[in-house]
Amino acid sequence: MLSVEGVSKVFLAGGRQVVALEDINLGIEPQEFAVIVGPSGCGKTTLLRMVAGLEKPTSGTITLHGRPISGPGADRGMVFQAYTLFPWLTVEDNVAFGPRLRRIPEKQVESIVDHYLQVTGLLEFRRLYPKALSGGMKQRVAIARAMANEPDILLMDEPFGALDAQTRVVMQELLLRVWEEDHKTVLFITHDIDEAIFLADTIHVMTRQPGTIKKTIKVSLPRPRDHSILLTPEFIAMKKEIVDMIWEESKKAAEEVSVLDV
Ligand SMILES: Nc1ncnc2c1ncn2[C@@H]1O[C@H](COP(=O)(O)OP(=O)(O)OP(=O)(O)O)[C@@H](O)[C@H]1O
To answer: Nearest C-alpha to atom 12 of ligand 1 is from which residue?
Structure first.
């Protein structure tokens, strides 16, 4: 469904070339929950921004349903770490924003909004403004709003990165419950390995900068999942494998920096 082929990205910064990504290849199947993990600065956000159409690859191609991505589009829904709700709209009007923009008849908008407020547990907060919501609730609205647009793929960049540990766990379980309703295709970025294994069908582990795919791992833990799965031997074995890979990359990156410093 989504195909990234031979994608590289070079930035020009202060007269220097920064090779952020090098020869990225990956494919995502319909209804797959794909997660990208990697050390800090390996280019995760850059890759997601290219899939979103906010950046162009320097070389290579990204296609969705076989069509090259040339800019942002309603077929891709975005949820970022920073809260991006419209502060002047209530919870329900934030969720209704996209469907109204697409001129969906108001009766249908209402039923879409009711559905996504219900699955995200926000029905009783529908008339509140974002400033009255906690961080976790704001991200629930952001998820409901992205899903109400009925995109082909949901792109999530560390959506729970700003939340405290307990809220984060609650949000991961909520996201899986929502996902299990309609199995939307998801591309999710995180540096949290527990989060990656807990959510994913497939994990793409990236190398240090210039980022490329080091290994793709299938997560065959049974679904539906809850957090008790974190204590299973399968989970712990997978975590060890990924921690080792990222640790190796971070160590090499640190060694490269200290060599440059000398
Ligand atoms: N607009 C830009 N101009 C110049 N360099 C950039 C730009 N955007 C990203 N970079 C560089 O590209 C590399 C990858 O950045 P990116 O933010 O994609 O990494 P990341 O894996 O998401 O990092 P983190 O996990 O720390 O958020 C970094 O070296 C970054 O400085």
So the answer is: 20
Q: Which two tokens stand for residue 67?
A: 């069509």
Nearest ligand 1 atom, CA 157: 22
Tell me the CA–centroid distance for residue 18 and ligand 1, in Å. Answer: 9
Q: For position 208, which CATH number holds?
A: 3.40.50.300
Q: Let me know if residue 209 belongs to a domain.
A: yes
Write the residue with the smallest CA distance to atom 25 of ligand 1. 40
Domain count, the chain: 1
Positive/negative CA dihedral, 173, 175, 178, 184:
negative
Q: pLDDT tens-digit profile of 79-109?
A: 988 878 999 999 999 999 999 999 999 999 9
Rounded to whole angstroms, how far apart are CA atoms 94 and 141? 8
The model's pTM is: 0.93
For residues 193 and 239, give the distance between their C-alpha atoms in angstroms, rounded to a whole number. Answer: 7
Query: Does any domain span residue 62?
Result: yes
Residue of the CA atom closest to atom 6 of ligand 1: 11
H or E element, residue 8: strand 2-13
Interval 186-239: pLDDT, tens = 999 999 999 999 999 999 999 999 999 999 999 999 999 999 999 999 999 999
Domain interval for residue 250: 2-75+151-261
Asked if residue 111 belongs to a domain, the reply is no
Q: What is the ipTM of this complex?
A: 0.97
CA–centroid distance, residue 205 to ligand 1 (Å): 16
Residues with CB under 6 A from ligand 1: 11, 13, 18, 20, 38, 40-46, 191, 209
